[in-house]
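Regression check, zinc ion case 307:
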Amino acid sequence: MIENPVPWPDGARCAAAITFDMDADSLLHLEHPEDSITRVSGLSMLRYGPEVAVPRIVETYKRFGIKQTFFVPAWCIEQYPKAIETMLEGGHEVAHHGYIHENPTAAGREEEAYWLRRSIEIIERATGRRPRGWRAPLYNFSNHSADLLAEEGFLYDASLMGDDVPYVLRTGKGDVIELPAHWGVDDWPQFVQSMDLDYMMPIKSAAAGLEVFKQEFDAMWEYGGLFVGVWHPFCTGRLARWIEVVKLIEHMLEKGGVWLAPMEAIAAHVKKCVDDGSYTPRIDRLPYYTERVSVMPLAGGGAKAAE
Ligand code: ZN
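Current build output:
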């Protein structure tokens, strides 16, 4: 089913990473700049992430002896230094997730580059190391993102959805490893309901939501892919859901043959395999399009004319 599985370390069948995007209340300030500070209930829902969920998540990881990745907007790093300290004490990776969850596809190249670089500096100051990975806020990867990531020396991106296995983004400035995910492994469609954020899903039970992720993981295990959970502390770090996550991690470990690692380690392994020729990845040259794809109006209306 997967034509070119990666040779994972120690003969593992598949690789898996649980990634948490600690957006906290950046989302609300971006969505409602004029009155975000008066939306106190919404703020409290999002602040649950850094204040309650992150310590819980890190504690569980410690119990299982695993290291994972947190993508954090730089503004949240400045706002919630204690949560970042907790991540670092646990030995986890802190990766780049924009400044305040801004949308790169709505910015020009210069503006995107400015926030990318400014946030690199903040991460470097807080963690003592330059970030190696990036996930575009809300998967808003722009036509300039790949180029800018290569220019800034990023090892990997975690925003795209083009495959079941890692692949290579080729740009004029160099290559970036893509560690893909998709909406099926994201926790928003399962659990998030927020009028403030204009996102209203019928909330699933914790077990039903996690069952979706378990199926995604089991498929990757069967065929040698890469499972990447794209979760949010304020959402999946809630108590009932976290109980189910613990069961999912136990399931992964009991199944065996799973390389559960931070994204940076997975990307470094893939790069090594590409360099030594043991893995031939798919290569996507970005951007896909350099000019607008225009659809000329057809006589009698597009859809009708095609019938
Ligand atoms: Zn995010």
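Comparison notes: The first helix runs from residue 26 to 31. The chain has a mean pLDDT of 95. No diff flagged against the previous build.
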